[in-house]
Write a structure and sequence with these properties.
By secondary structure, the chain is of the alpha+beta class. The chain contains 16 helices and 44 strands. The longest helix has 25 residues. The chain is globular and about 90 Å long.
């Protein structure tokens, strides 16, 4: 039986000879954690400050400019195995591996594993292992410059692009053994790779690659759902296929459409006398996925069809949740993905400037029914198609497609993030002349790799991409689009209503991290980011008087912007079939587009997503020269309900009303027209349209004279925390409670509540310590827009 022995103890770290480093680091060897990286080891040793706090990021640039050396000693006993391999699951990035003073291999790709045959270099007893890392910055600068989006040449090295800095993240260029390293001992043969191709009808085609060290006939057995198949394997056979069918399988559905049953698939390789040599185990799910790009009168679709059901994608973009991904655990992935689910999300796009996430990430997505769209790792840059990059890209793509093939949550492969768009839009042609830029990857190598290794999933050349090289890549009527005119060109978010794209794979608006998170430093990486926030605040919300007001208004403004876009796009369900907000998460304390800040706290945007991504959404939308109520039903059952729409004055007086019957079929958007006496205001500045707690204002809140807030607030104990009950005496707009101002551990269950006089709202707070009632019910903890009057 194959044996894998981790080499994760006794490591130490030292800077390489000749590197210019601070005196407290020079000449020192410190304990190292494997998996890990230089930054986390230096931090643990007390030699650097926390890179996320204050301006420490700028003080630590020397780490990425330096060489580093990891070293350990381990004991080994010869047990007669035919082969012993050193398996490095992740080396970041430019590495030389030395065993007992003999160089056994090199690496230059963070995104793939490496296997080195070390049987002849091991010795009984103690063995020394060294992994030397060259400066990734120096390596990247060693190639001719190609266009790229940010300061450093991240496109010249197969490494997490955002590690070099992005418009939301710090430049903290790492080195290290970032995924496990181990000795793998085996005899006769082993399973090199296994990839199951799974169909909704219960068919499972197992394709295995076999590595050989011996020469004898073997048996490969595949078992799933109580069904087994056995295939004879002749000596030296490199590829084996075994097919089986599970009768009447339970179908895996995206969340919101059904359950997520998972089946254990086991593949074993054994000798003819029954001795097991190797075993591979994964969970699979039975489902089908198709990308519908049918041309129509509006252009061409981009619709994800799962189990023959067109799914409206309610998505978010996922970035690496930590600049140092070795710190990411299954528990953290599960917490973050559950936060996404609780916000109504059904789809995660793993963005091309990050990493192929660990198996834990995709396992959790499988369990939760989250769909995953996976970018290949190219972002906002031109990439050489020559060696050494080409060979690394090819090897990386094959490994990752095979590794992820078992996951039912994974539904699409996309060639890149904004590289095709960049070539057409950002002036690259002149800079490149006749040099390659990545087209050979996106239109040839990658689609061929997916077609060969994983034909069960669709491939799309880029995000954005219109589906036809003769059409502008970011044309809203075709394929997938990125909507960045709002924000980068004009922060007036009413601009989202200017078009109805088929699938919006990116759009976003900035807001600050939560108050307690910001105490670790105010970071703003986007060009003119603060000025764009200020421009939108001036257009839509009352003037702020102090920092407390600004923080509330800036978070509220972000939430308002994204809700406006989401509800506009969802109201056109059918033509538009997906929205993927930029972005779900952050990796450090920063002003950014995220809904969950860098310390895991919900921003107001998270609560807005939960409302705007609800399976049943009521939303007022402009239609021509009037306003209509749209009932969006993403469920699989008909939505039938009676709703009253009222036009009211700011003092709560009803001016007109209509009773409407909602009868929205499954997976539809129903437009409910309003009679003129309800839809048309007498005075735009003093009237509202109301359907439950869904409000429509005819002008921006900046121009509405909300009354001074009047309410009664009661604080009481509750089984699940502390409850604050607010009863309105006046109209209250966007009533919100910020308990983390009192206790960084505190969270609240709801936010941005609209109340009419006499209505009541309840806020449940969880915290690690008791909170004072007086503080919970006054500014700046309890806020509403009326405070600004």
């Amino acid at each position: 039986m194959t044996r894998r022995r981790p080499i994760d103890q006794g490591w130490s770290l030292a800077v390489g000879n000749g590197s210019a480093v601070p005196t407290n680091v020079a000449g020192r060897r410190v304990p190292a954690t494997v998996p890990g990286c230089v930054h986390t080891d230096l931090l643990a040793a007390g030699l650097i400050p926390d890179p996320y706090h204050g301006d420490n990021e700028a003080k630590l640039g020397w780490i990425g400019e330096s060489d580093w050396s990891y070293r350990t000693t381990f004991s080994w006993t010869d047990e007669g195995d035919d082969r012993v391999d050193l398996v490095c699951d992740g080396l970041d990035t430019v590495a030389t591996v030395i065993l007992n003073d003999v160089e056994i291999g090199q690496a230059a790709n963070m995104h793939r594993s490496h296997r080195f045959d070390v049987r002849d270099f091991l010795r009984s007893g103690d063995n020394s292992l060294t992994v030397d890392f060259a400066s990734p910055l120096r390596y990247a600068h060693g190639f001719p410059d190609l266009p790229h989006g940010y300061d450093k040449p991240y496109n010249q090295i197969r490494k997490m692009a955002c590690n070099f800095g992005w418009d939301w993240g710090p430049a903290l260029v790492t080195s290290g053994i970032w995924r496990p390293i181990a000795l793998h001992s085996w005899s006769v043969a082993r399973l090199d790779t296994v990839r199951p191709l799974v169909s909704r009808n219960g068919q499972v085609e197992v394709r295995a690659d076999v590595a050989w060290a011996g020469h004898e006939p073997l048996l490969l057995t595949a078992t799933v759902g109580g069904v087994a198949v056995q295939v004879a394997v002749a000596p030296g056979t490199p590829h084996v296929e075994a097919g089986l069918t599970v009768p009447d399988p339970a179908i895996w559905w995206p969340r919101g459409y059904g359950d997520q049953p998972l089946y254990d698939l086991e593949v074993t390789l054994a000798t003819s006398d029954g001795r097991t040599l190797d075993r591979w185990q994964r969970r699979i799910g039975f489902r089908s996925v198709v990308l519908d790009t049918t041309p129509d009168e509006d252009g061409s679709a981009y619709t994800l069809v799962v189990n023959d059901l067109p799914v409206f994608v309610k998505g978010v973009n996922w970035i690496p949740d930590d600049c140092f991904p070795s710190r990411l655990t299954r528990e953290r992935y599960e917490h973050r993905l559950r936060q996404a689910c609780e916000a109504g999300v059904n789809y995660l796009r793993v963005w091309g400037g990050g990493i192929y996430e660990s198996d834990d990430f995709y396992d959790v997505a499988d369990e939760l029914g989250l769909l995953v769209g996976q970018d290949f790792l190219f972002a906002c840059a031109a990439y050489s198609e020559e060696e050494p990059l080409h060979g690394e890209v090819a090897a990386e793509a094959r490994e990752q497609v095979v590794r992820l093939a078992s996951h039912p949550s994974l539904v699409t492969w996309t060639g890149n993030n904004e590289c095709v768009w960049g070539f057409h839009e950002w002036g690259w042609r002149e800079q490149l002349a006749d040099r390659t830029w990545g087209a050979g990857y996106y239109f040839d190598l990658l689609p061929k790799t997916v077609a060969e290794l994983d034909p069960t999933r669709p491939y799309w050349p880029g995000s954005p991409y219109a589906g036809d090289p003769d059409i502008y890549p970011n044309e809203p009527g075709h394929g997938s689009t990125h909507q960045w005119d709002v924000w980068w060109k004009d922060p007036d978010y009413a601009g989202y209503r200017a078009s109805v794209p088929r699938f919006v794979a990116e759009f976003g608006f900035q807001g600050p991290a939560n108050w307690s998170t910001m105490q670790h430093g105010y970071h703003q990486k986007a060009a003119d980011g603060d000025a764009k926030i200020a421009a939108a605040l001036e257009a839509y919300l009352p003037p702020h008087r102090d920092e407390d007001d600004w923080h509330y208004l800036a978070q509220l403004n972000q939430a308002r912007a994204i809700s406006l876009g989401l509800e506009h796009f969802r109201s056109h369900r059918g033509r538009c079939m997906g929205t993927v907000v930029w972005q779900l998460n952050d990796c450090w304390p920063v002003v950014s587009w995220a809904a969950i800040d860098g310390e895991g706290r919900h921003k107001l945007l998270w609560y807005a997503l939960r409302h705007s991504y609800a399976p049943r959404l009521l939303t007022f939308q402009p239609r021509g020269d009037t306003v209509a109520l749209i009932a969006v039903n993403d469920g699989i059952d008909t939505w039938q309900e009676e709703i009253v729409v009222r036009r009211i004055a700011l003092d709560g007086t009803e001016l007109a009303a209509v009773r409407l019957e909602i009868d929205a079929p499954a997976t539809s958007a129903l437009t409910l027209e309003l009679p003129a006496d309800v839809a048309t205001p007498g005075d735009e500045r003093t009237e509202l349209l109301v359907a439950g707690r869904v409000w429509w204002t005819y002008v921006s809140d900046r121009d509405i004279a909300y009354p001074k807030a009047g309410y009664d607030a009661v604080v009481e104990s509750a089984p699940d925390g502390t409850r604050v009950v607010v009863t309105a005496r006046t109209v209250l707009r966007d009533l919100t409670l910020f308990p983390d101002r009192l206790d960084p551990s505190a969270s609240v269950d709801t936010a941005m509540v609209n109340l009419l006089p006499g209505e009541t709202a309840s806020f449940t707070i969880r915290s690690d310590r008791p909170l004072e009632a007086a503080e919970l019910t006054t500014r700046p903890v309890l806020r509403c827009l009326n405070d600004l009057r």
